[in-house]
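Work Package 3 committed the consortium to producing structural models of liganded targets before the mid-term review. Because experimental data for this complex are still outstanding, the team generated a predictive model from sequence and the ligand definition alone, so that downstream docking and mutagenesis planning could proceed in parallel. The input record is reproduced below exactly as it was submitted to the modelling pipeline, together with the SMILES string for magnesium ion.
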Amino acid sequence: MKKILIDMDDTLLEDCYIEVVNHYLKTHYTYKDCDGYWVDNLVPQEQLKEYLQYFYNQIDIYTFGHVKENAIEVIRNLSKQYEIFICSAYIDSRDLENCSKILLYKHKWLTKNLPFVNPENFIFTNRKDLIPVDVIIDDKLKNLASGKTKLLMNAYHNQNISEQELASQKIIRVHNWKEIEHLLLEN
Ligand SMILES: [Mg+2]
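The resulting structure, written out as tokens with the ligand in place, is given here.
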């Protein structure tokens, strides 16, 4: 069976991080206000330490945001033809002491929402580039390196990557889960 590695944040789920920032700061920021990948750059530098304390100790990130439309249904369909692996990073060099607490919430969300995926196939690492698989689906370019088929989930922070650049790396930009289903499933 071919193997698919699927990212969580901004691939399977969306808006979790920006909703936490807005909840914490009592703001209404949108992705237009974000400069680059890190949504929490919206938090003023002098409040960052306190914010990270809140983020890792007081909330479950996955009670914010939502699952992307059709994601679960499509992964369920894919699981009939592919072995599904979920891969998510958790190391935050800004707060190494506390960042592993997010693993509990990642594990909890996955076991609850993807009960048809073998929990032994949950992989938590920042080094996704070291895992060779048939298909990788991720919103971050560098995480696609070790996939034979590389699908870049369209996201606020990857808009500036040209289609030419993606083509030169044999990367296909996808916009939603129905598109992924169409690309990967033989009907
Ligand atoms: Mg991601």
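Reviewers should note the following from the model. The radius of gyration is 17 Å. These observations will guide the Year 2 experiments.
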